[in-house]
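Homework-ish question, so no full write-ups if that breaks the rules, but can someone show me the predicted structure for this set?
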Amino acid sequence: MNTQRHPHVTAAATAADFLIASRQCEIRNLEHFLRMGRLVQSVGNLVHGLQRERGATNLFLGSGCQRFARQRDLVLKQNEQLASIFREALADIQHDLTDHPVSSPLLGHIAGALHCLDQLPEMRRRVAEQSASVADATDWYCDTIHKLITVVFEAAETVAEPSIAGLLVAMVHVMNGKEYCGQERATGSAGFSSGQFDSALSRRMMHLVEAQERCFEVFVNFAHEESLGLWQTLRAHPRELEIERMRQKAVSVGRFKTLDEGLADHWFHLMTERMDDLKKIEDSIESAFHHRCVERYTEARRTLAHQETLLASLEQRSSPATPVLVVCDNGVDARTVDAWAGDGVGQQAGRSIFDLVQAQTRRLRQMSEELQSAKEALEDRRIQEKAVLLLMEHRNISNDEAHRLLRKLAMDQGKRLPEVARALMSMSAVIGNQAAGLKSCRGTR
Amino acid sequence: MNTQRHPHVTAAATAADFLIASRQCEIRNLEHFLRMGRLVQSVGNLVHGLQRERGATNLFLGSGCQRFARQRDLVLKQNEQLASIFREALADIQHDLTDHPVSSPLLGHIAGALHCLDQLPEMRRRVAEQSASVADATDWYCDTIHKLITVVFEAAETVAEPSIAGLLVAMVHVMNGKEYCGQERATGSAGFSSGQFDSALSRRMMHLVEAQERCFEVFVNFAHEESLGLWQTLRAHPRELEIERMRQKAVSVGRFKTLDEGLADHWFHLMTERMDDLKKIEDSIESAFHHRCVERYTEARRTLAHQETLLASLEQRSSPATPVLVVCDNGVDARTVDAWAGDGVGQQAGRSIFDLVQAQTRRLRQMSEELQSAKEALEDRRIQEKAVLLLMEHRNISNDEAHRLLRKLAMDQGKRLPEVARALMSMSAVIGNQAAGLKSCRGTR
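A: Not a homework solution, just the prediction itself:
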């Protein structure tokens, strides 16, 4: 709050200073996201590990603790490792985030995720003692995974570079889709192993399939070439058809028909393979994210050096014989320069700075436009989550039912889901905002 | 990009660390906006000064440099002072902004504004030599003022605290409305002093009146009590009725009727008073902004200290006899705590951190919801500006005509202006995006 902190600041700020500062600011942001990439990667790995642990735990509890103990122990050990890598990535970025003024929500959500993870030993103890039910354990894992994915979601919110933001939007949606896939695996396992799907279980399956599809649709819109290729390979895999047939059984077999219990293992195996393939897509996005950050960083540093040289040469224009270099990055229109040709030689320097300023302004405007679609995809997701929480609280219904109700409203009105969600939220003050606020805090438990 | 920068970071990041970091991050952001307040104030003062200079310059040139020379010299001197205060405020905040990773657009727009200001001496010289026409001078002042207001607009974009963002949204819209008022003063002066309004001049008057009204509507939605009171006083002032009557003359008197030229001075005087009153509203918002920042800053520091004490006491729970203090800021629901009562004494610490984490998550979510309306108001404004530029380029029409066309489209379709603007922008790829991009850079000259 005092101005003494930067004694090297000159009293007169110039256009050139701020042109350079704008570039430096972009560079710092890119450095920040290079570090952030490691965090996103560690979250993806930990989520995948916890999904495996959830699967192994359900099998273990489902078998009355008779089977899968060794496989589960192995997963637990691997996850210890993944959790500590996650905590290290966090420790590395903590101060960086605290200095990053828009990170307050991200930091808050990290605290939430860490708090969940702190309960992991206790949850495992209860599983070992069989004092936790399959439902208890599943709920806990779902909640923790949701909180971890939220960290990536919040990280994506803070990106200002369109191509990088797009990759994080793709990442969040694959993560979310894969998590729905994991929940579908658990739901299907419960049905197939008990030999039947009651209507609640069938509806849950349908909801999870639809929710996955919506996530993957958004992913496809923001995916880069390689991850899109992996996605198409996954879709074309014969396994998909098998899964589809088993899904049909799950949603069409009612309370009074029974299924071969041997299907449970097969289902679990198919869905596990599918999730592993989805993880490969995540890894491909992560790698593209890293490369894109490095590429943009190198590019930004080069442009900055270039601009600094140019501006220095403009300041030294004491020798009028030196031709002034007019460099316009991003292909600035030569006609802009021509239009000023009548102003005389004395205006040369003014013109070049003018061109640089214009080019930067235009570039920033274009970036903000490109960023818009990524921001909208995130905002769509956020508003839908809020609307679901509102419906859950207001009508006292489950998450699944709230999703279904939202879909029905959209279908009836011929509108997109986010539109209906937005309309609902705008009426939240009328239909009980306070209740919704309360639920939004406890509803995710 | 290396992790050695913060050797004091412990390897294991805890939920409590991140809870504290989230608060610290908010505090830094508030400090940043305390500094930003000074910049906003200096922009407001400089814009007001340049509006006065534009008025004085037009009168001076309009009188064939016979009158108003002394008044103009006085304004020029005052503006030298205001411009250097603006540059000082910029120099003070420059490093702060460069560290603030979302500031790249703001810094770019500051460079643009400074570059305009650098041309001020040259423009004044041309006025003194009478080598600049009234239209040249007016265009230059309008462009410079527009660029200065854009700085405040971009600053408003970076705020994460809803009540502070709301005040900046109110500020930007008063500034914009006041500038339209200034342009109306110039347009009216041109008409009244020439004794007639042709249809182009009348249409321009109508456009400027409508544009003002739209700005003030948004201002009213975000204004705090005091500025709203000042606004109502302004609206109830007898001057408003006089201005309204003169506006009627301006839009209804055609090419072949003539007006008393003495009206010009009266019009100029009335509009100047009105602008001075609008400046008082700006000052009132600025003062509220400052107080709100200080208030929120003090509050945030107190909460942080409180949480640090609490978390320290939770960590020292070696003595089980010490009662654990459960503090839930923002009125966390006591039932949340009760719901955990069955978990045994060993869970006390876990519970309290849980409450703090939940309270922070909920608070952040609520803040993001409240922030939404401020962000939307800014986004509405941005998209309308873009749509106007698109229409100007695509149909090769003036700014006024583009505004009128946009209004007509909205009226015909029974939609709000931002909706029509959004629909237009979504079609920009079809109707010539590149051309629009080019125009967006040169169209503001």
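Now go work out the reasoning yourself. Hint: The CA atoms of residues 39 and 90 of chain B lie 7 Å apart.
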